[in-house]
Design goal:
By secondary structure, the protein is mainly alpha-helical. 33% of the residues lie in helices and 0% in strands.
Length: 105
Amino acid sequence: MSAERNAPPIEGYEGLPVGTLQHRVRALTEEQMRDLIAYEREHADRPNVLEILTSRLTELENGAEPTEGDQSFHPETPEAPQGGSDVSPRGQGPRPKGDYQPGSA
């Protein structure tokens, strides 16, 4: 292994969602993939992640080339919510609808 196994070749690897990881490994070389597979086996040893990593390594071994993907791309990061809140300005929940008045029968 060319690098210490305590440092995977992808920054923030441990916290990446699987979909993001699948995208990010496409930029790695065969050697980096082997390093990452060894790191994964020694640390989390997640079967679904190992399947993704070994599949990509096989693609590279069969002639695929690393891509120049954007390493900051996070497809599973949700966008910020849009719109307002139903909470009243006084923070007491939604305002009553219709003619209903709290405290009246």
